[in-house]
Amino acid sequence: MTIESLNFDSMIIPYRAKLKAYAMGFTNDEENANDLMQDTLLKAFTYFAKFKPETNFRAWLFTIMRNTFINDYRRNARTQKVMSTTEEISSSQLLHSASKNQGEQKFINADIEKALTSLPANLYDPFMRYFEGYKYHEIAEEFDMPIGTVKTRIHYARMHLKKYLKVYEELKCKIN
């Protein structure tokens, strides 16, 4: 052991329990907290020569832990995103999923249709044009109104539909 490693070890001892608690706050899992703590201490030891003695050692350690957690979280999120988009789905899974969702989709489509027909004409027409892919200025020209009015009416139509279809948002939250 070098003098530097002995010095590092002696400086770490008072903060081990607090670092562990901090790691548990991030991970809510003993094993992941231990991994985070190990990664943090490894990085801290690696960069110990760059630590400035006049600064706060505790804050330095906790910042390393926070940044390590954030970086690992981002890396894992990217990995999971790639895995979920590249996973192969068997045709039997697709068929099962499609047949299961067909009944639900009929109800959802019927509710969307009701929500759309409940819109007043002055909101329905601009919204449908926008939904069909028309630009704001094209809609404004067609209905001979200012672009601001078109944007406002589309906004109100969205709010109306969102309110009408709120039950699906609540259902989605309960499922997730």
Automatic annotation (TrEMBL):
InterPro entries in the cross-refs: RNA_pol_sigma-70-like, RNA_pol_sigma-70_dom, RNA_pol_sigma70_r2, RNA_pol_sigma70_r4_t2, RNA_pol_sigma_r2, RNA_pol_sigma_r3/r4-like, WH-like_DNA-bd_sf
UniProt lineage: Bacteria, Pseudomonadati, Bacteroidota, Sphingobacteriia, Sphingobacteriales
Alphabetical UniProt keywords: Sigma factor, Transcription, Transcription regulation
Pfam families: Sigma70_r2 (PF04542), Sigma70_r4_2 (PF08281)
Name by which UniProt lists this protein: Sigma-70 family RNA polymerase sigma factor
One GO molecular-function entry: sigma factor activity
Domain RNA polymerase sigma factor 70 region 4 type span(s) in chain numbering: 112-161
Gene3D superfamilies referenced in this protein's UniProt entry, alphabetically: 1.10.1740.10, Winged helix-like DNA-binding domain superfamily/Winged helix DNA-binding domain (1.10.10.10)
BP GO annotations: DNA-templated transcription initiation
Alphabetical list of NCBIfam families matching this protein: sigma70-ECF
Sequence intervals crossing the membrane: none
SUPFAM superfamilies noted in UniProt: Sigma2 domain of RNA polymerase sigma factors, Sigma3 and sigma4 domains of RNA polymerase sigma factors
CDD domains xref list: Sigma70_r4
UniProt-listed PANTHER family: RNA POLYMERASE ECF-TYPE SIGMA FACTO, RNA POLYMERASE SIGMA FACTOR RFAY-RELATED
Family: Belongs to the sigma-70 factor family. ECF subfamily.
The RNA polymerase sigma-70 region domain, residue ranges: 14-79
